[in-house]
Write the C-alpha cells for this entry.
Amino acid sequence: MSHDTSTDDETLFGDDYPGDGNEPADAIEGSGQVAARLPGGSGYLIVDGPGAGSVTGSSTGSDIREAAALPERDEALDGTLPLFIVHRTAHYWRALPRLLAQLHAAAGATLALGVASSLPNAAEQSHADFNSSCTAAAVRLVDPHGYLIDPQDVRVAEPSDRSRRWAPYLAGVPVTTEDLLNMQRDRGANLLLTSGRALDPSDAQRSLDAACAEGDDALAVLKPSERLALNLTMSATWLTRPVLLRALLAQLVDQEQFDTWYVRVQWPTSVRAYAQPGDARLLAGYRELAEVAADEERRLLLPQTGLTGWLMLAFGAAGFGTGLAGSQQAFGEPGGGGGGKPRIERYFERQLLHTIERTARPVLQDDPGYAPCPCPYCRPLFSNAAWSHQYAGLHYLYNAGTLTAQVAPAAARRRGTHGAVGQKVRSAQRFATGKALTGSSVPAHLRVWDQLL
Amino acid sequence: MQASRFPAAEVEAALGGPVILLGTGSFGDTWRYQDTAVKIICSGSYPPQRLDREVNGLRRVSSPHVVRLLGTRAVMLGGQQRPALVFEYIAGGDVARRISVGRWPSHAEGVAFLRGLLTGVRDMHAAGVVHRDIKPGNIALREGDWSRPVLLDLGLARSADEATITVYPAAVGTARYMAPEQLEGRRARKAADLFAVGATVREVLGRQHPFYDDGASYTHADMIALIAKGPHPLPAGTHGGVADLLDRLTTVPEHERGSASSSLRRLGRAG
C-alpha cells in the first residue's frame, strides 16, 4: 500500500478538523473585497476578502475592487486557459467554493477552474448543492466512476452499499446511456462524461471500440449546448506497453467526434503516497498522449494526477485534477488503511514542487532562498499548535492552482507553457540540491521530470 | 485500358446517346454520357451492400474534392437490368493515366495536389466515411489541374460507425497503396486513407513508388517490411515542412499520421 485511497475524509482530517470550512472568511483573509462578474452578467462572486466564495447582487459597490470576469465552460475548454480541476472530498467540501474563488482572485484571467465529484460518493442533493456552490468553477463534472465494477482491469476496492445505492449501476442495475447522462445533469454537471469503465488490456481493440460506441450513444442524445468528454480509465500498462499505447492513440485520433478526453490512469504501487511517479516509460506515455491531443486540437484532461498532471501541461494537456486527499492527487491502488498509526503531518513545498513531512521543513527554512508561502491558509495553519490537515490540504490546492496559472500561456508569454514548466522544475532542482532531505521528503521526481522536458 | 464488357453501341442504345469509355474496373465499366460519368455494374457478383455503401457514402459527403453523385439508375445490357451510378463528369482524366505518360507535377503542383487530397479526405472523414482505396487510379484532376484533385470510386468506402461487412483479417484495397495495417488484414481506419495519400503524393513528387520497385512482385509480408524500412528519399528541394508531413503520413504507427485536419494545419504552417 502506498497511496492513501480513502474516500472518507474524516480519516484525512482526523480529529483536528477545525470546522466545516464555513468559519468567518476574515479569519484567514484581509478586509478588502474583490469580486468577479458572473458569466452572463447576472451578479458578482466575491473572490477575495470577507465572504469570498459567496455571490452578491448586481453591483460590486464602490468599495469593492473588480477582478477578471469568470470564464464560461466553453472558454474553459477552448484550450487557451489551463483547466485546474479540484476533486470534491467526501466530507468537508464546504471549504472548496471559497478556495476556488480565492484562486480566481489570485490567477485572474490566466486560469480556468473546474470541480469533479464522484457520483457514487454522495447523494443527489449533496452533489447539486456542491456544484451550485462552486460558482468560480466553469467546468463541473460528476464522474460515474464506472471502473469500480471492473476489478479485473484496475485494482479497486469493492463499492460500499451506500455507493451502490447512490449509483445503482454499480449494483448491476441496468442503466441506459441517457440515464447515466441524466444522473449527471440532475447533480449539476455541465461537462458530461461517459461511464469511465476500465479498458481491458487483454482485448484492447474490443475494449476501445466499446468505450467509443458508448461515447457515440451519448453524443446522439446530447441536448443542444451540452458538452461530452470521453471518459477512459486504464491501468498504467496502457501507457507503458507500446502496443497498447499505439492502440489507444490510434483510436483516439481516429474517433474525431470526441473533442475532450478525460483519461484516468492507475499508477503502480511503487509510487508512494503524495509522491509523483518516477517511471520514465509511464511519463513518456503520458507525454505522448498529451502531445497527440495537442496536435489534434483535442482537450486532454487528466483527473487524479496532481503535479504529474501539471507537468503534462508542458506537453499539451489541457487540464488536470487534484484534491485535498492523497487519493485525489493520484489514482492509486486501494490499500489497507493506516493501521491505526497517527497520520503523517505533510506540507506542500512549492519551491520543491513536492509534499514533504512537516518535520523536514527546518531543513528548507534555513536556506536563505526559502520564501514563506503567502497563501491564505498558511497563517492559520502555522498559528495553531495543532497541525490542521485541512489547512495543509487547502494550502496545497491553492499552490497547485497558482502554479498552474503561472505556466498558463497568458502568463508564460513567449516562453510558452513548456518553457515555464521547465523553468519551475529546474528552479526546484536547484533548491533541492544539497538539502538533507530523507525518505518521502526527497523530491526524487524532479530529475526524471527534467529529463522528460 | 481493358476492353469494355459490352460494346459501345449497346451502351449508347441503353443510355440514349453517344458514349465514351472512361475506364474498366473489377465489377463494371464507366462511360462518359453527356456531362456525366455512368458507372455500370456488370458483374453479378458485385455485392449489393457494396453498391449501397458507395451510394450512402457519397450522399453524406459534400466536397469539391470528392466526386459528386447525381443519382442512380438501371441500365438494360446483355438482356439484364444492371445497376448504375451517375456521377458528375470530371474532365481532365485520372492521375494514374497522367503519370503513365510521364506528365508529372512540378513541386508546387505536387504540394497543391497534396492540399487538395487532404481537403477531400478531411471532408470525407468529417462525414464519417473512410475511402480505403485511395490510389492514383481513383483520383481525377478537374480540368487537368493538380490543385483540384477529386477522389473517385468509394466502392470500398466504409462508414466509420457502421458494422463492417468485411470479415477481418482481410486485405481490402489496392495493395500498392495500402497501409501496413491493411496489409496485415486489420481494419482500415481513417489513418489508412492518410497513408494512401502520403504514398500517392510521394510517388508523384519522386516519380517512383515510395516503397516498391516497378515490375517486382511482393508478398504482403515483403511490403510490410519495406514500409517499415522507410520510403525512398524525396527529391532534393522538397520543402522541409512538406517532407516532414509526407514522412508522418507514410509512417507505420497509425496515430503518428494524425488526422486530415491536423495534416492540413501542418501543411499550412509549411507555407
In short: Strands of chain B lie at 19-24, 28-33, 36-41, 69-77, 80-88, 129-130, 139-141, 149-151, 158-159.
